[in-house]
Amino acid sequence: MRRKENKVLRAEGDDRLKGTRYDWLRNPATIDPEDRRAFAALRHSELKTARAWALKETAMNLYTYVYERPARKHFQWWYGWAVRSRLTPMKEVASMLKRRFANVITYLKHRITNATSESINAKIQWVKYTARGFRNKQNFINAIYFHCGGLDLAPANH
Question: What SS3 state is found at 66?
Fold first, then answer.
């Protein structure tokens, strides 16, 4: 959103969005007080980027809910706002979240992600890459156990 709007504004001679890419991506709680004032002026402007940012930050609040019913109510309110926003990228994100909302609810109930399995898979891929091939499958399996098994190989003091 910011990239397109910046291109249009710069063609008109307006450099307000120049150099602000990472400001829109930062966590608002971690912004320095001096930067916060400059960013607040942009946030409260009539820019499409400011509306998209507000939608994004409000959508992130969905993940703070613990119970399903308030989360559904918040999402329905946010979805209506996103669809009426006249911002095509935000409409697409809203429809994608609506299609996958059952998965969001599952996360809110259990707070489990696949990050651990992805980490193990990354280690396995690293083992495979660094070995440049194995003589047989058993050697590959042994290498996976060695690197991912969490073995304590330090010599024991008796």
Answer: coil
